[in-house]
């Protein structure tokens, strides 16, 4: 061996000891690390500011999208990581700065994995509402989060401990923890790919497509949401797999002047910061706060849709809308109904406050042709089922005051399908106005 023993060099240096094995990214230097880290620092500042702006803007509108705040937290970890690597490149012999930089690198990426898992869960619950809200599937993500958080804490502690011991047995155990942690990262980053793929393929099966309704949420098509999750998972898994693979390859002494190509700085910046900033900026540009938004407090099958939607609408536009805005697709207006401008007529209601005589949550009145429409899966046209009269359902017609209205759409939670009832089957509902008329 023509180079010094790493253990002897570490013992001479004293605690915290310099690393005895080479690692991905190597020890940074002024060139080229400072210019590269400066560029990533600028990009992560922009991304963090963008996600926090959307988070606060949505919050002011009553739309709490916590994942935007999570993205800001991730960007903060990367701002700290790039800043510390710049400082470390100026003081390459400072082990304490190196420890801090490595901790922030390890701690940040898991937030992207968790966010993509939440997107995955919402897609499954949308495509398969009854299965997606079962206890086994609902408990799977919290249990996985506990495992992830426990593992990341163990990984951080192990990394810090590796700089304060020279015991070979302890260092071997620490390396095992690192291998476990990076392998877990790779598995977690990969999970959305098979889950979303299986969910989408199962959705296309005739027995599911023709009998079960999609619980639509957010804006944009389901195909776009699936594409975002799959492409993001592909890139995140690529980076995580590369980092795990380097730990399975033979290790080299830190004092060895010959460095393996897979530990180079180019691969570090490519498979870490480059992939991460691309995903974060893509999520910002694609407005995940709109596409993956669900109503606050959503719980149970079809809670993403807010309970019901109006006939003739392509999706669940009633989510988070006020009384006035939720009537925008109804036929007529205050003038048409013959009321003065101060009156506010409330047609229909929520799934929890509908006519007590029927289990069906009736929505709104529409003049649109609702006898045939595009299936919720977007693949074929399906007729909406007609309403079957209950024995308890009043048969007298109601004077709803809307000329030309033909049918009303409602959601039947037991059958899991939309239903239509003709105007003659609609019970009379009292109309509430501010003036008391």
Using brief descriptors, characterize the structure shown.
two-stranded antiparallel sheet; 5 strands; mainly alpha; about 425 residues
Summarize this structure briefly.
This protein is mostly helical.
Give an overview of the whole structure.
This protein is mostly helical. Helices cover 51% and strands 5% of the residues. It is built from 14 helices and five strands. The strands form two sheets. It has a three-stranded antiparallel sheet with strand order 1-4-5, with no helix packed on it. A two-stranded antiparallel sheet has the order 2-3. Strand 4 (407-412) and strand 5 form a beta hairpin. The protein is elongated and about 80 Å long. The chain starts with 5 loop residues before the first helix and ends in a 15-residue tail after the last strand.
């Amino acid at each position: 061996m023509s180079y010094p023993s790493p253990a002897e060099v570490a013992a001479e240096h004293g605690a915290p000891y310099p690393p005895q094995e080479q690692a991905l990214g190597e020890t940074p230097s002024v060139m080229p690390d400072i210019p590269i880290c400066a560029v990533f620092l600028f990009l992560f500042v922009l991304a963090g500011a963008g996600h926090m702006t959307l988070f606060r803007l949505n919050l002011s509108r009553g739309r709490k999208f916590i994942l935007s705040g999570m993205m800001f937290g991730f960007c903060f970890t990367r701002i700290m990581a790039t800043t510390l690597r710049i400082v470390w490149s100026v003081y390459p012999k400072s082990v304490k700065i190196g420890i801090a930089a490595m901790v922030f690198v390890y701690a940040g990426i898991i937030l992207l994995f968790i966010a993509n898992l939440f997107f995955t869960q919402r897609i499954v619950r949308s495509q398969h509402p009854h299965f997606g809200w079962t206890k086994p599937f609902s408990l799977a993500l919290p249990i996985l989060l506990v495992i992830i958080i426990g593992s990341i804490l163990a990984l951080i502690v192990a990394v810090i401990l590796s700089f304060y011991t020279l015991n070979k047995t302890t260092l071997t155990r620490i390396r095992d923890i690192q291998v476990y942690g990076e392998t877990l990262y790779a598995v977690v980053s990969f999970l959305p790919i098979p889950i979303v793929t299986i969910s989408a393929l199962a959705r296309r099966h005739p027995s599911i497509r023709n009998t079960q309704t999609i619980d639509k949420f957010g804006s944009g098509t389901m195909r776009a949401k699936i594409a975002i999750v799959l492409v993001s998972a592909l890139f995140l898994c690529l980076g995580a797999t590369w980092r795990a693979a380097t730990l399975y390859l033979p290790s080299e002494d830190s004092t060895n002047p010959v460095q393996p190509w897979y530990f180079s700085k180019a691969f570090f910046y490519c498979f870490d910061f480059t992939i991460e900033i691309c995903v974060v900026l893509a999520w910002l540009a694609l407005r995940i706060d709109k596409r993956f938004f669900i109503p606050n407090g959503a719980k149970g099958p079809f809670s993403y849709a807010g309970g019901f939607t109006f006939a003739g609408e392509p999706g669940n536009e009633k989510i988070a809308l006020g009384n006035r805005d939720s009537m925008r697709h109804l036929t007529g207006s205050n003038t048409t109904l013959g009321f003065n401008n101060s009156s506010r007529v409330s047609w229909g209601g929520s799934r929890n406050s509908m006519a007590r005589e029927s289990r069906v949550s009736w929505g709104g009145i529409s003049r649109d042709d609702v006898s045939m429409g595009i299936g919720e899966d977007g693949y074929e046209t399906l007729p909406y089922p007609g309403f079957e009269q209950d024995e308890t359902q009043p048969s007298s017609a109601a004077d709803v005051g809307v000329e030309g209205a033909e049918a009303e759409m409602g959601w039947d939670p037991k059958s899991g399908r939309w239903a239509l009832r003709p105007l003659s089957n609609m019970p009379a509902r009292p109309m509430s106005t501010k003036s008391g008329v």
